[in-house]
C-alpha cells in the first residue's frame, strides 16, 4: 500500500521516515499531496505495461511506486526502463507513526543531457552520445559495433557540431543553467518546508550521473526523487538516463535499498503549461500585430522508428502538450494559429515529421508574415535554441518571406516553473520504493559462449557490408558532416 504525507510530517529539516512507510500501518487524516491536475492527464503508454503494484496506482496519468513493463504485445523499449511516474496515488491519508524517528535525508537528482564545455570536448561528448544504445539503436546482433560506430560518427560529426558550439561562445551553456536550476529548486523546496540536497547528473558529459550518485551515497541520502529535466518522455532522453541509473543502482548494495521515486514526465503539469503560456503571451506582445502571429512549436525530433516500432510515447506526449498549452492560451483569450514541427535530425533515417526547416519554407511561401518560434522539448537554452533556431531557422524563415520573427526563451529558472517542479517532487516523495534488482533487458547478454560467437561472426560480416556500402557512405556524408 502506498502512503502519503501530511503537513505535520514535513518539518523543515527532519522527516520521520516511518511516516513514509509503505507497510501495514493504520491510516488516518486526510491526503495533502495527492495527484493534481487531473484535467491535464492522459497516460499514454499504460496499454503496454503491467503493474507490479495494484491497478489503482494509475490515476490521473500518474503512477506511484515502481513497476516493470512487460515487453509483451508491441515491442516497447520504454518497458526496458523504469516506468514509474512518481506521485503517490494513495487516496487514503496519513500514516500513524510508531514511536521511534530516524532522520530522513532527502535528495533530488536532476538528470540532464550535458554538453561540451569547450570545443575540445565536442568529439568525446559526441562519442558518449552515439555510444548510447538508446541514441543509435542497433539490433542486438550488432551491439558490439556500437562503440566503433560511435567513434566513426563522432569524428565525422565533430566539425559541424564544433561550428555550432563556436557560434554560441565555444561551448554548451547546459551545465551552468542546470546548476542554477538546481540551486533555485533547492530554495523553492525550502520555501515549502522541505530540506533537500539537489544533485545534477548528466548523461553524456560532466558531471556524469555516476558522479552525482557517488555524492548521494557519500551524503547518506535516505530517500531520493529523480527528476529528468525533459518535460516529455523519450527513450532517447529520460529513458536512456533512467536506464543508466538503474544499472548503477542495481550494482550497489546501499543504492539498491534506497527508496527512489522517478518522475518520468511532467509535460501535463498545470504549472509547466501555465509557465509556457506566460512566456508565449509575453512574447506575442512584442509583435506589432500579436493576433496575426503564427505560434510555431519546434520540438526536438526522434527517429520515426522509436515511436512506431519501439513504442516511444514522445510524439503523443508532445502533441498533447501542445494542445494543453494552446488550451491555456485560449482560456486567456489568445487564439492564434499554431503549428508543430520537429527539428535537429541527425543521420540517414526518417525522423518525426513535419520537419521544422521544411515547414518554415512552406509558411513563408504561403505568405505568413509573423512567426513566434517556441522550443518545447527542453527547459534550458542550448545549442539547438541558440544556434539552430536563433541563427539557422531564423535566417531560413526570413529568406522564405517571413518578415517578423520572434522566439520564446527556454523556461530556465522562471519562478512559477521551478515552484511547480518543487511541488512535483513533494508529491513524488511518498511513493519512493527501492529499485528492484530485476535484470536490465537492454543489457541482456547471452550467457552461452557458442551463441555469442555465432552472433559475433554473422554480425561482423553483415556490419562489414553495411559499413562499406556506398549508400551508407553517401548517407553519412550527406547527413552527418
Ligand atoms: C542522433 C540521435 C539523437 C536523438 C535521437 C536525439 C534526441 C534528443 N535530443 C534532445 C536534446 C538535446 N540534444 C542535444 C544535442 C545533440 N543531440 C544529438 C543527437 C540526437 N538527439 C546530437 C548529435 C547532439 C549534439 C549537437 C549536434 O551535433 O547537433 C542537446 C544540446 C546539448 C548542448 O550541448 O547544448 C539537447 C538539449 C532531445 C530533447 C531529444 C529527444 C526528444
Ligand atoms: Fe539531441
Automatic annotation (TrEMBL):
Pfam families for the chain: Ferrochelatase
Enzyme Commission number(s): 4.98.1.1
The keyword RNA-binding is assigned to this record: no
Pathway: Porphyrin-containing compound metabolism; protoheme biosynthesis; protoheme from protoporphyrin-IX: step 1/1
GO terms, molecular function: ferrochelatase activity
Keyword Transmembrane helix among UniProt keywords: no
Enzyme class: lyase
Keywords: Chloroplast, Heme biosynthesis, Iron, Lyase, Plastid, Porphyrin biosynthesis
PANTHER family named in the record: FERROCHELATASE, FERROCHELATASE-1, CHLOROPLASTIC_MITOCHONDRIAL
NCBIfam families (UniProt xref): hemH (TIGR00109)
Family: Belongs to the ferrochelatase family.
Record function comment: Catalyzes the ferrous insertion into protoporphyrin IX.
Protein name, per record: Ferrochelatase
Source organism of this protein record: Quillaja saponaria (Soap bark tree)
